[in-house]
Write a structure and sequence with these properties.
Elements: E1 4-5, H1 8-30, E2 35-41, H2 45-60, E3 64-70, H3 76-88, E4 94-97, H4 107-113, H5 125-132, H6 141-153, E5 161-165, H7 172-181, E6 185-189, H8 196-200, E7 205-208, E8 226-229, E9 233-236, E10 242-245, H9 250-253, E11 259-260, H10 268-286
Parallel strand pairs: 1-11, 2-3, 2-4, 5-6, 5-7, 7-8, 8-11
Antiparallel strand pairs: 9-10
Helix pairs in contact: 1-10, 2-10, 6-7, 6-10
C-alpha cells in the first residue's frame, strides 16, 4: 500500500478562506475587524521570515496586523510594558510574542503577562489548565492543526490508540490532551522511552514531535496507521545544500501507513492558519459575539 498524503497546504488554504469569510462577516454585520499583534525581539533570520509570513497572511485574511520589532537588547521590563499596553488595547484581539527570546528575558514571565483571552498561541497557564480540564479555551496552533487533519483523514478517532512522541509544552502535551478529548487511548512517549518501536507498532495514530530527523522508522509502524509528522529538521546533503525532513522516515513509512503528512507541506502550513483562526475566535469571545463554525477544535 502507499499512504494517502495529507496535504497541509490545501487544508490550510481552506481554513484561511473560512477565516477570511468570517472576518468579512464581522466587518459587515458588527463593524469589527479582528486585530493580531506580533512582537519580535531581536533579528533572528528564521523568526523574521516567520513573522513576515504571519503579517502577510493576517492582512490577506482582512484582519488588522500590528507588528512590533524590538532590538535584541530590549529589557524584560520594557517588553512586559508593551504587552500591558497591548492587553489594554481594544483593537488588539490576539497577542503573540515570537519565541525563542533572548537569554536575559524570562519566557515564562512573558507568556504569563499576556491576557489569557488574547493568548492566541494557547501557551498561558490558564489556557493550558483549561485544556487539561476539558474547558473551552484557546488551543496551541500546531496541535490544533494536527487534530483538524486527523479528524479529516484518520477516520473515527474514538477508541483509537494514539502515540504522541514528544512531551513539549508547545506540541506534545497539548496534542495528548486534545486526543484524550477525542476519546482516544493516548500514550505519551519520548526519546528515552524503553522499546519505543514496539509501542509505536501498536498505535493507530502516531504523532511525531521529538525533533530528530528520521527518528521514527517505517518498520516501527502498524500497517494502516495514520502518521502526523510535526518535525521540521534541516539536514546537510553534503554538497553545500540542505533540505527539510521530518521526524519520520517518510520513504519507509509511506508504504506502511494509510495516511501521512509530508515535510515540508504537511503540518507547517496549518500552524499560521490556526493562528488566524484563534485570533478570530478570540475576537468573538471578547466581544461576546457568536463564535465562527469550523475555526475551533
Amino acid at each position: 500500500m502507499t499512504a494517502q498524503l495529507i496535504d497541509g497546504k490545501a487544508f490550510a488554504a481552506t481554513l484561511r478562506e473560512k477565516v477570511a469569510d468570517h472576518v468579512a462577516h464581522l466587518k459587515r454585520t458588527h463593524g469589527v475587524t479582528p486585530g493580531l499583534a506580533v512582537v519580535l525581539v531581536g533579528d533572528d533570520p528564521a523568526s523574521q521570515v516567520y513573522v513576515r509570513s504571519k503579517q502577510t497572511q493576517t492582512l490577506v485574511a482582512g484582519m488588522h496586523s500590528y507588528e512590533y520589532t524590538l532590538p535584541s537588547e530590549t529589557s524584560e521590563t520594557d517588553l512586559l510594558g508593551l504587552i500591558r499596553e497591548l492587553n489594554a488595547d481594544p483593537d488588539v484581539h490576539g497577542i503573540l510574542v515570537q519565541l525563542p527570546l533572548s537569554d536575559h528575558i524570562d519566557e515564562a514571565s512573558v507568556i504569563e503577562s499576556i491576557d489569557p483571552a488574547k493568548d492566541v498561541d494557547g501557551f498561558h497557564p490558564v489556557n493550558v489548565g483549561r485544556l487539561a480540564t476539558g474547558q473551552t479555551t484557546l488551543v496551541p496552533c500546531t496541535p490544533m492543526g494536527c487534530l483538524m487533519m486527523l479528524r479529516e483523514y484518520g477516520g473515527r478517532l474514538t477508541g483509537q490508540h494514539a502515540v504522541v512522541i514528544g512531551r513539549s509544552n508547545i506540541v506534545g502535551k497539548p496534542m495528548a490532551q486534545l486526543l484524550l478529548r477525542e476519546n482516544c487511548t493516548v500514550t505519551v512517549a519520548h526519546s528515552k522511552t524503553v522499546d519505543l518501536a514496539s509501542l509505536v507498532n501498536r498505535a493507530d495514530i502516531v504523532v511525531a514531535t521529538v525533533g530528530r530527523p528520521h527518528f521514527v522508522q517505517g518498520e516501527w509502524l502498524k500497517t494502516g496507521a495514520t502518521v502526523i509528522d510535526v518535525g521540521i529538521n534541516r539536514i546537510d546533503q553534503g554538497d553545500d545544500t540542505t533540505r527539510l525532513v521530518g521526524d519520520v522516515d517518510f520513504d519507509t513509512a509511506k508504504d506502511i501507513a494509510c495516511a501521512i503528512t509530508p515535510v515540508p507541506g504537511g503540518v507547517g502550513p496549518m500552524t499560521i492558519a490556526c493562528l488566524l483562526a484563534n485570533t478570530v475566535t478570540a475576537c468573538c469571545r471578547q466581544l461576546t459575539l457568536p463564535e465562527p463554525v469550523g475555526l475551533t477544535v
